[in-house]
Amino acid sequence: MEIVSYHSEEIFKVTIKYKSPLRKGYMFTYLTREELNNVLKRINMTEQQIDPMQEAKKSKSFEMYSFVSQAKICFAEYVYDRRKELNISQQELAKRAETAQRIISKIESACYNPSLDLMERIKYCLK
Is residue 52 part of a domain? Predict the structure, then answer.
């Protein structure tokens, strides 16, 4: 985490480097001195005191997002495995399903929310 003073002594621009199984990158936000101190206190706590999954499960939308993520992963695995079984490229599948290769790539990475129509077209092409 990089902290850069911004505008005044009371407002800080905070840049956070993140890495997940699917993506990595940077995000930033602006925090007051009090908010920044609270964040730093949380970071300084030991990992035993903060369980990220327990914190995430406290959110009311956790179950819904978890279900959606699992569905995207299942579809991604199905598309990838079936495409490999049929020995066709992403480009060929995209052409058959009337979409772009980059969309097939994103679907196989579980980084895309395809419409039901697109899912049906892909499923039909993989029969």
Answer: no
